[in-house]
Amino acid sequence: MSESIITIKNLVHSYHLKKLFDNLSLQLPKHTFISIVGPNGSGKTTLLRHLIRSLPTEKDKIFLMDQDISFYTQKELARNLSYVPQQSKLEYDFTVYEVVAMGRYPYQKPLNLPSTEDHKIVNESLKAMKIEHLKDQNGTQLSGGEFQRMLIARALAQDSPLILLDEPVSHLDVHNQKEILNLLRNLVDSNKTTVITVLHDLNAVSAFSDLVVMMDKGKIVAEGKVSEVLTAQKIEEIYKVKVRVENNNERPTILPIWN
Amino acid sequence: MIGPTEDRSGVQTHTQSSKLFGGEGMKNKILLVLVTLLLMTTTLFGMGSNENLSSLNKPISVVDSRGVEIQLEAYPTKIVSLSPNITETLFALGLADKVVGRTDYCDWPLEALEIESMGDLFSPSIEKIVASGADLVISGNFGQALILEAVEQGGVNIALFDEDQSMEGTYTLIEKVGQITGSSEKATSLLNEMKQTVDKVVASIDEKNRPTVYYVAGFGEWGDFSATGDTYINDILNIAGGINIASDALNWTFQQELLIQSDPDIIILPPNVGATFEQTKNEFTSHPVYSNLSAVKNNKVVSIEENILERQGPRSAKAVEQLASLFKSLM
Amino acid sequence: MDNSRVHKGLFILLLILLIATVVIALTKGAASIELSIVVKTLINGPANDTTSRIIWQLRFPRVLTSVVAGAILAVSGMVYQALFRNPMADPYVLGISSGGAFGVSIAAYFGLLGAAGGIWKIPIAAFVGAFGSATLILLLANRSRGNQTTLLLFGVALNFLLSALMTLFMFLNRSQLQSILQWSMGSFATASWQKVAIITSIAIFSLIPILFFTRELDILLTDESSALSMGVEINKVRTILLLFTTLATSVTVSFCGVIGFVGLMVPHIMRLIVGPRHKRLFIFSLVGGALITLLSDTIARLIVAPSELPVGIITSIAGSPLFFFLVFNSRKRSSV
To answer: In the CATH scheme, what is the code of domain B60-194?
Structure first.
């Protein structure tokens, strides 16, 4: 078994007669915190959608745990990969527990009641995201931070070796950002889970990631350690913004020059 | 009957004016034309609106079923009928040569078919009606009220005679049509004939042997419909000596349960559109629910020409007569 | 979990109400028959006298048809609301109602329905129109690769088109206009044991499978990506559920005409009372739909007896205030 969790070979993606991905290739290792960064429209979300098989993909292009994802059944895929979307609303009065419990779906048979194992994992997921005290609360009445934790807890309940997140903290205050990113970091450090997340805040990327993948216009323009990728030159080139980078302990601080 | 008068007022005025002003001079001729046009226009407007005339005290005045007082200078000479029963009435009153328009459904008497049709009952051609030169358009149904209004816009006199859904209403209807057309004498004699016929029927009814009857307006998959208490047919059925089991119901709707429970002696089944009586009867008698009715088992499912039963008009007394003898023969 | 005990109690209450209403509906009717006679007739089984025929041939099948039809409409509405993620969805959004009415009006125009509408001719014409329309929409949507909103919009467009066509054919066929219109307003008056057998089999065949998909229905209420990533085969689930509910609703429309309100409101009402989880919502919608429809039909045939009102009017008039009341009160709740 190789060390890669995700391998992408020559992925092509067209959209309205324009090519977004042209032979995109990528290999990502297990048990790491991987951040995907890049300007809006660079293809980050599209990449994620290919990974969760939300977009049609040819065979032999994307491999999860060394197996072509085309050959996974939907539930098998769900047991190996979970996903937290960029935007999600809850419009019905499910309790927090009920929402998180939906994550056990890949392990359940129709008409069967949830097992003890299901209950255990759901509770553990709630605990891991520090929302155990909210489990009987109406899911539509949570704060932004609580809601995000609930979604991540649901993904955790899927008990998958890989979690994909699309901008999980962009709309949260800095306290919640820190809390949630720390929780994700802990998952990688303790559970040996792999986290792949799209993030906008370059400083957050710097503080938490093991690996950074930088994209621009559908191409991977940089891949590697934080200090390798988040250089002033690269940032200016891709984001068209001048920054000052202060290097400390391989986790640089990026300061945009506003005027 | 007062002689026919076409509206020649404009022409006559013109002739008088030329004598007043002398025949010479372009200016005078133009003035004359203008004055004539003015007078014609005023008269035309006046013709189209009854309100203007009410102050003028026209010789003929009849209140129609809308409660509107219709005032005419003279009895109509060209009449358009928008309802089959009105057409029948006009013919029965001897006004055949005055009828210049009818509807597709006006099929009695046969002579009526020679008259030009203005269209169907719901959307006849207003233009055609106005173009016919009619001086009176008569409708026999409140449902045509909007059509009448449109005709009135075209400047033609209108009248709506839709009376009580009863035999009395039929008499009133014939009377009023007689009044507005100047044939009250003929109307009176027709009415006397009809009343005689009806009286004869009523006198011969065996009160102890009146059959219960049911009129099938609709059956089967479409639902059950009958001549309920608020209908004209209900009155006819009663006068003819029948006891209409649907007389307590309203609005043509009737429940199957009651039909089964009442189990009427006689069932009157008019043939459905586009089918013969035999075909309709077959469908009715072979239906699992109706096949158990006594009237079906005793072969007392009969028909009578739908039109004379439904049209309030000169043939209504005949309908009563026919029904009464039909009932007698079956009991 | 306090709630579940309350819910169990509520369910039993609903069931009792339903059974009670069935009994009352059997004993009451335009033909007033004494209670003791009704009971005797029921016990003795179907016989050939008038009373027995009224109870066994007319009332009993009618009562059962309204119960089953109500269950079908409410559950179908519940499924449609989840599949389309749209609270305004009801089982008619894909053109089933307008398709059914159109089928009837065009068959009537071409004289295919016979003098009295024939026992099976109208239902067949309606079914072809109803099921055909829905299938057409689904195929179109499939080819256009659109999402749920696209599907809904196709349905709206088709509804408009079919309604207009139906009106055209009714206009050209004035003599039957009233009949067609009346039919489309919905009625259980033409119920029979044969129809009961058919509609009940269809109900069992179509509704039981939905029980196997209650988890998927819950998950489908979130967004597409989440549902996919949680392991739901969205296309397969949607197709199966749509197929079953469309079939059942089409049969209902072909036997009973278009009965509104039940499919839209009953799932909402139940959701406000027992929450959104489909495992519970299914059974409550089923019983709730059956109860409301039976009640409405019974009122419809009693209130102006010996005449009858179209049942759809009663369902709307009775149900709307109830719905208003529930929505109003739910706003005050702070948590489940």
So the answer is: 3.40.50.1980
